Amino acid sequence: MASTLIVGSVAFDTLHIAGTCHSKVLGGAATYASLAAAHFAPVQLVGVVGRDFPDSATQMLRARGIDLAGLEVADGETFHWEGRYSEDLSSRETLRTDLNVFADFKPKIPKAFQKAEFVMLGNIDPTLQMDVLDQMSKPSFVLADTMNLWIDIRHAELIKLCSRIDMLVLNDEEARQLTDQKNLVRAARALRELGPKYVIIKKGEHGALLFHGNDVFALPALPLENVVDPTGAGDTFAGALIGCLARANDVSGPSMRRAIVYGSVLASFCVEGISLQRLHEASPADVNARFEQFRKLTNF
Ligand code: AMP
Asked: Which end of the chain is more exposed for a tag (fewer CB within 10 A), N or C?
């Protein structure tokens, strides 16, 4: 089993969902991804929080075997994001982003983490994502996530990052925006021409597509009756995927497909609870039962 390094935001989120406000619950891309990855492999988290970050949260992450030696505690307040979801939860608007200590975040990779073989560069400035890679020895697999903000304001840097990663994970809108291609198959080809051998295009409740060589793998999302909070589903998907690859220490076809299924399994738990609640509660037996549900769903 190889180790996994995850870099990204650790946050408080204020979520407006179905008329209820969930104020300052635990969130952040790296938090979701780490908790998901920890279901499969040892995780090393790199991020920053403020002095207001509660011990209960660090204890919960540690109890999951997540190594927090790279979680810097800086003077100031923890990153805070506030969003409101549409009634059907299919879209959301950002009401507020308080970068706080995240504004000066310069990821420092502890020496003991520099040899990690599997790396997830969560959604941060691509310049910082490249700084992280500069500090690593020689990871065998690097996955990067991104968002529309960086496509807009750090386009050239994002293109440069693409030449240094193995997998790019982004949603359909972002894939179209980054490539100027409306058709997702063409967009994926254009993205792979920038460097990553693997491109995953996420389509929210409609699942995900993996493009690799001449291969396309499509996986639906599990049809769920009880969707409560979609926050962090994408990060959870990517975290579980990298954790699963690290566990197998293998990125060949069957292992990659399995990792995508586990990514979708963990994402399905993520959306069933507010914040990280359901992701935290899911047991190995729950995870395996859902893996089997996916097998039935897609077997014909
Ligand atoms: P997702 O739903 O997968 O897009 O991820 C949601 C998580 O991303 C939330 O928990 C937020 O705290 C975090 N987040 C929101 N905006 C940003 C940003 N600009 N940079 C880093 N993380 C963010």
From this structure: C
- Closest by Cα among 92, 100, 103, 135 to 116: 135
Protein residue with its CA nearest to atom 4 in ligand 1: 232
Q: Has residue 205 got a pLDDT over 90? A: no
Asked whether the predicted pLDDT for residue 69 surpasses 90, the reply is: yes
Distances (CA, A) of 156 to 138, 210, 291: 24, 24, 39
238-255 pLDDT tens trace = 999 999 999 999 999 999
Question: From the CB of 27, is ligand 1 less than 6 Å away?
Answer: yes
Give the strand pairing for 4-7 and 43-50. Answer: parallel
The per-residue pLDDT for 1 is 87
Q: What is the pLDDT of residue 204?
A: 81
Closest protein CA for atom 14 of ligand 1: 28
Q: How far is it, in rounded angstroms, from Cα 62 to Cα 161? A: 31
Residue 204 CB less than 6 A away from ligand 1: no
Q: Which amino acid is at 220?
A: P
Residue 47: which of 75, 15, 5 has the closest Cα? Answer: 5
Q: How far is the CA of 254 from the centre of ligand 1 (A)?
A: 30
Distance between CA atoms of 89 and 12, rounded to whole angstroms? 20
Tell me the whole-structure pTM to 2 decimals: 0.97
Task: Name the closest-CA residue to atom 6, ligand 1.
Answer: 232
